[in-house]
Design goal:
Blueprint (H helix, E strand, L loop, with lengths): L1 H35 L4 H15 L4 H17 L10 H10 L5 H15 L3 H14 L7 H17 L3 H18 L2 H17 L3 H15 L5 H18 L2 H12 L9 H13 L3 H14 L2 H17 L3 H48 L4 H51 L2 H15 L3 H10 L10 H14 L3 H8 L4 H11 L4 H8 L3 H16 L6 H10 L1
Helix pairs in contact: 1-2, 1-3, 2-3, 3-4, 3-5, 4-5, 5-6, 5-7, 6-7, 7-8, 8-9, 9-10, 9-11, 10-11, 11-12, 11-13, 12-13, 13-14, 13-15, 14-15, 15-16, 16-17, 23-24, 24-25
Length: 544
């Protein structure tokens, strides 16, 4: 009997040792697939699939390692993550079993999964946790770079450009340590685009020049072309059409080299429409219709609709306008999903944290647990009620704004049908406004390019008061259309007193092109139009 016991123990030990050896070999294959995913993700997926039968018999540590590398390989192969069923247990395991290599990697891919699911707040939280978990070593620089890039993309999508700029600055520091010339040039371009989105045009131009000077010696033609096209977009934003054209012309000369340059085609469309050179815009419009992304298709259909309206081809215009609206709704829906996901994720994450604290206190104070759970239910009920009220108020505001825009559209249409009455109204308005000294002071003194006198805050207040005397409620009607900035309101006040573009530019210390662009943007913001002319906004202001 004693010998049998010894034999049994020996067999068990041999089985345990064999199992450990099998798990060790399996982990080696899994790690090899993880490394392969960086360069050949399809091959990595195939290798992991071949290991799948053995995974069911492996220990939990090996199974979690396998799932993490499978998530990584699919992500590298651009396979969109559809749910978090696989990443959730992986993150739970590796955050509970600290691993200097795999814990930050698991947190990073949790961020990637929730980014694909449209849950931006949770994705950002996991990215930040991953940054905190990464050991400070040269081997982890690539992961830091990827995290900063992903966070920047999320902030850009939500139009939080200052935070995107901060992430890109950190990414640049990382790429410099990596000595990765291509990525340094790309991040410089992203920093320039962040400055352009923030309307800090001087800094944007500096960074575009830095990026071009950096990448041209490298010989990466695709990256150089992309940066120059974005630089042209900066000049287009500022109203310098010829400068933008001079940059784009050599790029567009080889049309077939722009197969993946979605943004370049959109920039070309906007430039040639602004220059009223329709034949040059058409190839880029049709390319965008066939090959462009959702933003390019929306721009192309909106542009074609405006062209057909000018040609009095109403049937075609309606078709293109419906397609434009379809793509606009798709884009707007994605933003709505983003906002809802942000609210829900923020609340769910707070709830998750509170639940963890409750579980820790469960054994020590059950009574306190009941009180806290009751408080959570109350908070949840209040949150549901507040969310319902918020959505109701938001729908009401949207309906009111749509009705207001429709009313202005009718008013503008009627005004174009009676040019004579419009001219008389304008003449009477000018006569009424010029009875005020402050209006004449702006027109003849502050607006005189030879003078260096600047308008004070009190001067602007008096100008606004004079306009309100002639047009009671003007400012309230203006702000009901859109939350304009202080500078934009000043431009609207000067338009209302019929000041020419050159005088407005002198008063605000801007270029004439910048003032024209500002007027176009205000029209686009209010009427959600892909294209606009500055006089269109002037007509809106004079109709208020």
């Amino acid at each position: 009997m004693k010998h049998l016991l010894h034999i049994f123990i020996a067999v068990v030990c041999i089985a345990v040792v064999a199992g450990c050896a099998d798990n060790s070999r399996l982990r080696d294959h899994i790690d090899r697939a993880g490394r392969l995913a960086d360069t050949c993700p399809d091959s990595a997926i195939a290798l992991l699939d071949s290991l799948s039968p053995a995974i069911n018999q492996a220990d939990k540590a090996t199974r979690m390692r396998y799932d993490l590398m499978l998530i990584k390989s699919r992500d590298k192969a651009y396979i969109e993550h559809r749910n978090d069923s696989m990443i959730a247990p992986v993150v739970e395991y590796f955050t509970g079993h600290s691993d200097p290599d795999l814990t930050p990697l698991a947190l990073y891919y949790a961020g990637r999964v929730y980014s694909d699911l449209g849950d931006a707040p949770r994705a950002l939280d996991y990215y930040q946790q991953a940054l905190d978990a990464i050991p400070d070593s040269h081997d982890n620089l690539m992961l830091r770079y990827l995290i900063h890039g992903q966070m920047s993309d999320i902030y850009t999508f939500q139009h939080i450009y200052d935070k995107s700029l901060s992430c890109n600055r950190q990414a640049l520091e990382t790429t410099i340590k990596m000595n990765d010339s291509i990525r340094i040039g790309r991040i410089m371009e992203h920093i320039a685009i962040d400055f352009r989105n923030l309307n800090i045009y001087d800094s944007a131009a500096v960074w575009f020049n830095k990026a071009i000077e950096w990448v041209e010696p490298i010989g990466n033609q695709s990256l150089t072309t992309d940066i120059k096209a974005q630089f042209a977009a900066l000049y287009l934003d500022e109203g310098y059409l010829e400068l933008a054209d001079s940059i784009l012309k050599p790029i567009l000369s080889d049309f077939h080299s722009l197969l993946n340059q979605y943004a370049t085609h959109s920039i070309a469309i906007n430039l040639y429409i602004a220059k009223k050179e329709l034949p040059k815009a058409l190839p880029h419009i049709y390319w965008s219709l066939s090959n462009g992304n959702i933003y390019g298709k929306r721009l192309a259909y909106g542009t074609l609709a405006n062209i057909k309206i000018r040609e009095n081809d109403i049937d075609s215009a309606i078709i293109y306008m419906n397609l434009y609206k379809l793509y606009s709704d798709s884009i707007n829906d994605s933003y709505q999903v983003e906002k809802v996901a942000k609210v829900n994720a923020a609340y769910n994450y707070a709830l998750y944290e509170r639940d963890n604290k409750l579980l820790l206190q469960e054994n020590s104070n059950n009574r306190l647990l009941i009180i806290i759970l009751s408080a959570l239910i109350l908070v949840l009920s209040i949150a549901i009620i507040m969310t319902h009220r918020y959505n109701r108020i938001k729908r009401m505001l949207v309906d009111m704004r749509v009705s207001l825009l429709d009313a202005f559209g009718i008013g503008l249409k009627q005004s174009t049908q009676n040019i004579q009455s419009k001219d008389i109204s304008a003449e009477d308005a000018i006569n009424s406004l010029r009875q005020y000294d402050i209006v004449n002071l702006f027109i003849y003194e502050f607006g005189n390019p030879k003078n260096t006198i600047n308008a004070t805050d009190e001067d602007w207040r008096l100008l606004e008061s004079a306009i309100e005397d002639v047009y009671p409620g003007f400012k309230n009607r203006l702000l009901s259309l859109f939350p304009f900035s202080d500078t934009q309101i000043k431009v609207c006040l000067m338009i209302k007193v019929y000041m020419p573009n050159v005088k407005m530019a002198h008063i605000l210390n801007r270029s004439e092109g910048a003032i024209s662009v500002m007027r176009k943007r205000m029209y686009k913001s209010v009427f959600n139009s892909p294209t606009a002319e500055a006089p269109q906004w002037d007509s809106v202001i004079h109709s208020l």
